[in-house]
């Protein structure tokens, strides 16, 4: 079964410095991987997704992630943090379980809280 | 123009009561989900429906009963509420179909914070 490990529960950066949120996955298949962001008291918003096309994936708000099969990693980066980036980030792998070909059962990591200092 | 909307946003109730959470999506998606986020922010799938048919049913107490009157709605009814049911419940939807369904990202609602006292 697929699983996701987010290596840091909390990350703190200064505004204007780079962001690195680490994620490792395990999957029996060629996985689909996602990063979602959750702002306080809000739902989850999709940042980006990897679906076996380009290994470097660009998302919204200047975030990007690189799929490295040899390292089973899908780390999220941003060159320069902004105060509005402070939120919780979830790395997610898609498990193909479900009836027939339908159903997208996402397996979530435990989340990384990003704090941005001014 | 909310894509996935849940009601209510907050729900406070006593143990033993029965309550429902409603979810509607206007994205034209054919698959809807319920996820539970516990106090440690861990998200786990509960149910998924595709075109009103149950396709994913994780190990959830049978006090929880999802109902999908049409593919734009997926409601969650909970009987005999317990303290451990306190959590944030997220509804989501996606467009699926065929072998590419696992690629489809989910669109989430803003959650329903359920507190059982």
Low-confidence stretches of chain A: 98-102
| Main sheet characteristics of chain A | 6 strands, mixed
Rounded radius of gyration of chain A (Å): 14 Å
- Average residue pLDDT of chain A: 88
Secondary-structure class of chain B: mainly beta
Structural class of chain A: mainly beta
- Radius of gyration of chain B, CA atoms, in whole angstroms: 14 Å
Percent range of helical residues of chain B: under 10%
Oligomer: heterodimer
Q: Distance N terminus to C terminus of chain A? A: 41 Å
- Residue windows where pLDDT falls under 50 for at least 5 positions of chain B: none
Helix coverage percent of residues of chain A? Answer: under 10%
Distance between the termini of chain B: 34 Å
**Strand-residue fraction of chain B?**
over 45%
Largest interface, with Cβ-Cβ < 8 Å?
A-B, 30 and 31 residues
Overall pLDDT metric of chain B: 89
Total number of beta strands of chain A: 12
| Strand and helix order of chain A | EEEEEEEEEEEE
- Proportion of residues in extended strands of chain A: over 45%
Number of helical regions of chain B:
0
Number of strands of chain B: 11
Record the SSE blueprint:
The complex is a heterodimer of chains A (118) and B (117).
Chain A: E1 3-6, E2 10-14, E3 19-21, E4 23-26, E5 33-38, E6 44-50, E7 56-58, E8 64-68, E9 73-78, E10 87-95, E11 105-108, E12 112-117
Chain B: E1 4-7, E2 10-13, E3 19-25, E4 31-37, E5 43-50, E6 53-57, E7 64-70, E8 73-78, E9 87-94, E10 107-108, E11 112-116
Parallel strand pairs in B: 2-11
Antiparallel strand pairs in B: 1-3, 3-8, 4-5, 4-9, 5-6, 7-8, 9-10, 9-11
């Amino acid at each position: 079964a697929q699983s996701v490990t987010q290596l840091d529960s909390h990350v703190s950066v200064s505004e204007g410095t780079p962001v690195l949120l680490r994620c490792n996955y395990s999957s029996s298949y060629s996985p689909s991987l996602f990063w979602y962001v959750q702002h306080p008291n809000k739902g989850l918003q999709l940042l980006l997704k990897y679906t076996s096309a380009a290994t470097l994936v660009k998302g919204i708000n200047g975030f990007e992630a690189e799929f490295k099969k040899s390292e089973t990693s899908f780390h999220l980066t941003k060159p320069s943090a902004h105060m509005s980036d402070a939120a919780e980030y979830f790395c997610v792998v898609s498990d193909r379980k479900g009836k027939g070909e339908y159903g997208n059962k996402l397996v979530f990591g435990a989340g990384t809280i990003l704090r941005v200092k001014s | 123009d909310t894509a996935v909307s849940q009601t209510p946003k907050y729900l406070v109730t006593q143990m033993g009561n029965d309550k429902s959470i409603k979810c509607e999506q206007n994205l034209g998606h054919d698959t809807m989900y319920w996820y539970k986020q516990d106090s440690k922010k861990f998200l786990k799938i509960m149910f998924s429906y595709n075109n009103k048919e149950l396709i994913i049913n994780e190990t959830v107490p049978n006090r929880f009963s999802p109902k999908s009157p049409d593919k734009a709605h997926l409601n969650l009814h909970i009987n005999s509420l317990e303290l451990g049911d306190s959590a944030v419940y997220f509804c989501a939807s996606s467009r699926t179909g065929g072998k590419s369904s696992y690629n489809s990202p989910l669109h989430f609602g803003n959650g329903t914070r359920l507190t059982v006292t």
